[in-house]
Amino acid sequence: MVLACLCVAAAMPAFAEDKKAAPKPGQAKPVESLEELPRDAKLALFEAQTLLEKGESAKAVEQLGKYIKSHEKKDDRFLVRYQYASMLVQIDRREDALKEYERVVHLEPRYDAGWMGLGETAYGLGQYEKAADALMKGYELTTEKRPELLYYAAAARLLAGDTEKAIPLLDDLTAGKYGKPKFEWYKGYVSACIQAQDTARGQTVVKSMVDKFGENPDAWYLAFQYYASTSSYRDAAVALTIVGYLRPLTRQEQLQLGDLYAAVEAPAAAAHYYTSATQDSAKAEEIEKVASAYLASYQSAEALEVLDRGLKEKPTFRLWSLLGDLQVMEKRFPDAYKAFSECVKLQPEQARPYLMLGYCAIEMNDPDLALTHLAVAAASEEFADRAQMLIQRAQIMQAAPTPEPADSSTSGCSASDSSLSGK
């Protein structure tokens, strides 16, 4: 159980307790102790404990249950029921245990262990509102004042969807009101801010967390998760980069960091992390990311190396298209023409490769070939305007008496023209 550590001390109270001092006039009677139980109740508990020690849990529960049944009308003792509830938990009869704990706190509302047992069991059964209320009550009554009880009460509030009550508790815990803050408490607080969609508070909480736990990579990873969840990609990239300084990033984390740098238009950094993640093995879509990042950062040689390797292993439409774009960027039009021809073979229904084939053919001074491809691209609504522009250029070339070598610096549509880069 998540809360098992909270109730260990109260799981099976010792039989040899000192008698409590008699109450002074005007004081409430102290909570009954095991020492004050009648002889038959002590015997029933002793026999049940003996069976437990022998490993006969089911028999112990059955025997103590019979005792409670026979005494519930004339002498119902909360301590006996508490022990019975604890045994029910041990044999995984938690619904029955919950009812017994509820009976315990009904018989003696001042019994802190009863409330904590109720809270723990309700938590395990997914009854989070009941768990939170019980844990809060247990904290109020216990003399130890363990802040973990408040944290689990807040966690239960969150699981119940009650951020309004959870946040003040978490705020006090992380502020040090109940002792030195723990990283786990910040995890709950950050989760509460996300759930409440309170970005202003969330940023404050994350900053406080990394200030206190800056040497803990888990703190920075939690910061990365928070920033990513709020679409603060630049901050998310910084946080995950710091994680990488504190411990090695996993392959998946390197890919995530590459995605973040790509999202904030830092393609060189994206390429670095994509390459690191895929150096041993890569899926086709991962190779595409690496090549795209290199292209975006104008690292042509690196992009070409990645594309050549990827096409040998996993030739895809996207990889051929990226290679074609790279060759166009480098003004190697025959090579680009070959790459886009492979695209057509793989996905003949796609219009863009025909547009690029037409453009390459123009740059290769072959307007007749260009027009055959551009006619296909012109039938596409998305590329019709660009195709018509190139068709006019090809027709002018056909009409010219002596075709001149193409000058990409003065042509109506240069090799680097962004109008052709739509993907």
Describe this structure in words.
The chain is an all-alpha fold. Among the domains are: 35-145, Alpha Horseshoe (Serine Threonine Protein Phosphatase 5, Tetratricopeptide repeat), CATH 1.25.40; 249-313, Serine Threonine Protein Phosphatase 5, Tetratricopeptide repeat (Alpha Horseshoe); 315-400 and 413-423, Tetratricopeptide repeat domain (Serine Threonine Protein Phosphatase 5, Tetratricopeptide repeat, Alpha Horseshoe). 68% of the residues lie in helices and 0% in strands. Helix 11 packs antiparallel against helix 12 (217-229), helix 12 (217-229) runs antiparallel to helix 13 (233-246) and helix 17 (300-313) packs antiparallel against helix 18. The longest helix is centred in the last third of the chain and has 16 residues, at 384-399.
